[in-house]
Amino acid sequence: MTSFSLALIVLIVSVLVHESRVSAQCDAQAQCLKDIATLRNNVEIAARALNNKITSCTFACPAGFKQVPGVTKCIQIVQEGVNWGAGQDKCTALNAQASLLAIDSKAEYDFVTAELKALSDAGKTPPNGFWVGAVRAARTCDTRFMWETAAGSQSIVTFTDWATNQPDCYAGSEFCIHVVNVQGVFKWNDLNCGTSTWAVCQVTA
Fold it and tell me: Which residue in 20, 151, 168, 186 has its CB near the most CB atoms, within 10 A?
């Protein structure tokens, strides 16, 4: 083997070793960046949770409303028959900032359904469950459900708890959502917006 060949082999090995080191550093850097991004996201989530907790501790509900634990949201149950639109109006009559309830998490839903169950256990049962603020965006069967306030602003529904085989937009006219007692468990169902039943109102910070 000539000295040139040996030198070439040494150079190739050196390049391969350097390439391997660079690759490892790049992989490590990429993982490091991912870890930083994950940590930053966790910190932001924790900061929001802490801020919500602090705010909820100083947040006072309007008269007649009851606070949902851990969030700046208060609810009141309308115990009279109203259709969905009249339910929004009824909420606003209770408080100018109120609308039909928007449910953002399972924890909120568990609290609300416990309140509804307490009414049922006390013998106070509405004819068709309780209206909440979810409605098909364009009032047609092929549009998605949105939370809609009394003022008409909309936001995407991200939490649901549908009854079996729901929603079905029965007869092509079920555009609004109510929470109904299904064998002791409260579930979501779509219903004709003109149906008369009770409603759940909310006020938020």
Answer: 186
